[in-house]
Amino acid sequence: MTDTKTNPQGAIAAFMTRSFDGAKIEPDQDIFEAGYGNSMFAMQLVAFVESHFGLDIEAEDLEIDNFRSINRVAALVARKQAMAAA
Description:
Blueprint: H1 9-19, H2 39-53, H3 70-85
Helix pairs in contact: 1-2, 1-3
């Protein structure tokens, strides 16, 4: 089993799949451009990241580019985890 705390792509993908009625989201697919995401979903995604990974998403992290795709969210999680570990 993959540890979603150190490899977050799986957890983020599963969250998006559940949120988008089972739609398969590619790791680099822009969820906003594809019509899946909107501002309400972005806030749900922030709440998921904070609760699932135990991170605080700060105001400066709330750039839409950080939340456009599974891989971009995973990169944000990795950065925040690295900062917390330092």
